[in-house]
Specification:
Strand content: 5-15%
Strand order of the largest sheet: 1-2
Order of helices and strands: EEEHE
Shape: globular
Helix content: under 10%
Amino acid sequence: MANQEIMCTVSSCHYWAQGNRCDANQILITSNEMAESLDDSFDAPQATTAQQTEVAVCVDTCCKTFVYRDAAEIEDDGVYRV
């Protein structure tokens, strides 16, 4: 598998790193509609059990892995910094 890099410009996210990189060990991107229906702790480790979603434009998608950098819930979703 090729070395992949996820880029992110949301500097208030716990997983944001220098150079606009995402340092989460895994991420879940889903539709806005699906993200709103899921608990905050539902994230990439549970992704294989999530329903597939379909959207037509990028603004209808959501990075479910976002956690505010100073939030108490940083470890609730099973994702960690690499």
